[in-house]
Design goal:
The chain is an alpha/beta fold. Helices cover 17% and strands 35% of the residues. The chain is built from 2 helices and 8 strands; from the N terminus they run βαββββαβββ. Strand 6 (102-109) and strand 7 (115-120) form a beta hairpin.
Length: 137
């Protein structure tokens, strides 16, 4: 298998809800395992230790709840980016993922010729969507 780079998001206790939302928006197969399944029962046993979403379009999104005893800090230094030239599919992702989100930049044509937008979803994850425009002449 070739090496891959993909987002891995740490949630503060709502990884299951978030990943089910992302699966509804992006499609694909979602697998999730809890801390209890890997030998850590207790009050956080039902939290997600590892989740993996693989979409038919080749997108991969992984996540977990922050493990017990580990500190979680949110931030604005990273965002999940969706980009490509399939405008219909990317607009559909935008419409589904922005349900309950705070749109910080509407998806619209930009000076570089692409459609681009930004939002923070209902789980406080930042997203960027870029739809490639026609090649410059």
């Amino acid at each position: 298998m070739a090496s891959r780079l993909n987002p891995y998001i740490m949630f503060g206790g709502n990884a299951r809800e978030a990943m089910e939302f992302y699966q509804a928006a992006l499609g694909g197969d979602l697998s999730m395992n809890t801390f209890a399944e890997f030998g850590s029962p207790g009050p956080d046993g039902d939290k997600i230790m590892h989740a993996n979403l693989e979409t038919p379009d080749g997108l991969t999104l992984m996540a977990s709840d922050t493990p017990p005893g580990m500190e979680r800090s949110g931030g604005t230094s990273i965002a999940v980016s969706l980009s490509g030239d399939d405008a219909e599919k990317l607009r559909d992702y935008w419409n589904k993922l922005t349900d309950g989100a705070k749109v910080t930049m509407p998806l619209e044509r930009q000076v570089w010729g692409d459609e681009y937008g930004q939002f923070t979803d209902r789980f406080e994850i930042q997203w960027m969507v870029n739809i490639m425009g026609p090649a410059p002449e």
